[in-house]
Design goal:
The chain is built from three helices and six strands; from the N terminus they run ββββαββαα. The protein is of the alpha+beta class and 133 residues long.
Length: 133
């Protein structure tokens, strides 16, 4: 686990923002530009090659509804994927508050489908579409 203040390449760790099955995600700040990014660090050495393939594929995808990959760094021998940082909570938090109005649900669904369609156009499959993502 990375502690706030740690510097990875040219990114300073600010906070842990999430954990998943194979990785942790941190909010990081570019040390020269001051821009905020998300750093996803794989934790399972057995998943390193899969993670690298994911990084290369995701870096090719540019769509307003898909988080952009901007860099790939080494984090103590493990791969780190630097992505655009999107502030806010996931759809799962919004859904926990109760049912969404039809127009809101329809707009969100259409935006998700648009991003998935862009991935499919590049022969990519997102294997983990869910409200938390």
């Amino acid at each position: 686990m990375l502690e706030p203040g740690a510097v990875i390449d040219r990114y300073a760790v600010r906070a842990l923002v999430g954990t998943g099955a194979m990785a942790r995600v941190y909010r990081v700040e570019h040390t020269h530009l001051g821009s905020l990014h998300a750093l996803k660090v794989v934790e399972s050495p057995g998943a390193v090659e899969r993670f690298a393939r994911e990084a290369r594929a995701q870096a090719q995808l540019r769509h307003p509804n898909v988080v952009a990959v901007t860099d790939f760094v080494d984090v103590a021998g493990l791969p780190g994927l630097v992505m655009e940082y999107v502030d806010g909570s996931g759809l799962n938090v919004l859904l926990n508050r109760g049912p969404l109005p039809w127009a809101t649900a329809n707009r969100i669904f259409a935006e998700v489908c648009s991003g998935v369609q862009a991935a499919h156009a590049l022969n990519m499959v997102h294997r983990d579409v869910k409200p938390a993502n």
